[in-house]
Every structure is written in structure tokens, then in C-alpha cells.
Task: structure prediction
Amino acid sequence: MKFLVFGSLNIDLIFSVDHIAAPGETINSGSLERSAGGKGANQAAALAKAGMEVYLAGKIGRDGDFLLELLESYGVRTGHVLHWEGATGQAIIQVDKSGQNSIVLYGGGNAALQDAEIGPILKNFDRGDMILLQNEIPLTAALMRAASERGMKVCLNPSPFDGRIAALPLELADLLFVNEIEAAGLAGRPVSEDLGPVLEELALRFPRAELILTAGKEGAYYACESLRAKGDIIDLPAADTTGAGDTFTGFFLAARQRGCGVAESLGLACKASSIAVSRKGAMASMPFAREVF
Result:
């Protein structure tokens, strides 16, 4: 199986702060780092670090060429990443002393993708390959339909969760990765610590999909048809939660592709994301396969 991650590439500007700035508040940052990010790029990096054959498609400006060099160093195939004359997507990230983050996004090249650019990329992939999508580019619905028509497996992480999600052909998803907020939104329920009813609601609504619900320190849950499973995190000191969910997604898919069962795959993905949270950064914090498997 080949993995195609079609999604966002960002330049992350990371400010280390004592606390997340409140509305109207001006605070000082202890440090500033520029790094590679975007959910598409992050998930491609996680899959590559986990040892998978992964291709990334998206759009950047010339200011983002360093992103491609970094991704290629991890093993990501970047030949389907397009260039345009504008800026690469940007993310302004505040990370507080407890490791929590707050993120402001600018679309840049991510928002400039065109429908006509889908076909020439997808023709390089066949029935049984997997496309992995998020919600940081404008073509997600068209990509889901086009990939499904080609017989590709469709994996969706509807993040960030906003009003555009309702317009997606969610019934085409073979796998859905959601956190507590995204799960509650899809289920039409308020966010709650009791995740069981939310998971069951989603299982009824999406009977053909594998559902993977990540719940931070509570680990992760799985539902598909009659199968239920849970994975637990490794309790490590938190340094930075940026990219933890993307790490989980990449390593869960890699574990399944390696032939691991659902419960084992959940545990391995939780292990990978726990390691990532204990380190600074997004892609840089992601472990390699030898640290997890």
C-alpha cells in the first residue's frame, strides 16, 4: 500500500510563553523558533518516520522549500508538492510552560490549491492505496470523492473542526480519526468526559468506518462494527503537545499496515504520541520506528 497525504504545509513560528495570551493581553516570549508544520506535512512525517511509503501533496511558496528538504530527510516523497508565487501557509503557535498550545493559522499556499490539480496527482495511485486528509485545505470533499472513485481507501482527520465539515461526504470515509472535540461535533453532542456514548453515536452514524477517538491522557478508543478496543498512553512529562495527534495517526496506520491488531496498534500509537509529547517541536519530536515497534 502507498500512502498519499494530501494536505497542508506550514511554517510554524513557535513562541514559548508562561501562559497563553488572553484577549487584549500583551506578554513576552522566552524564545522563538521557526519549524516545519501543517497537519498534512506532520502526518506525512509521522508515517515516514514509522517506516511507511508515503507521498505528500500540497502547495507552498518558495519560502517553504526548507520544508521539503526536511520532509525528504525523513523519507517523505515530495514530488507532488506544488509551488505558487505567494507565501507558504503560516502558523503562530504559543506553547505555555505546561506544554499546552494555542494556534493561529494563515492559509497561504494551502488555500490556493485548485480542483484541476487533483487529477494529475491521483492518477499516480491505485485501488487499495490510502489517501489521508484533514481540514486545512479547501479541496477535501473533492479529494474524498475522486479518491473513492479510484478505489483508494479514504482516511479523514476532520481537524480543525468547523462548519465546513458538515459539507463533506463523510459516508465515504473508511477511517475517521477524531479527538474529543471533533467527536462531539460529529455526534451533535456537547463535549463530555464520558466518551462512551459519543463513540457509540458515531458508530451508528458511520457503520462502515473504522473510528479512532483520541482522548489525551485517557488514551485512545476504537470502534468498528462490533469491535471495541482501547489504548493507553505512557505517562511521560509533557514538554509540547504540538503534533501529538498527527503522530498518533501516522503510527496507528503504520502499525495496521505492519499487520498489528487493533488493540496493539492503539497501544503503539499511544506510545509514539507519548514520546512526541515529551519532546519539543512537531515533526522533530516524532519518534522513529525503532523507538516504537
Observations:
- The chain has one domain: 3-7+39-88+111-292.
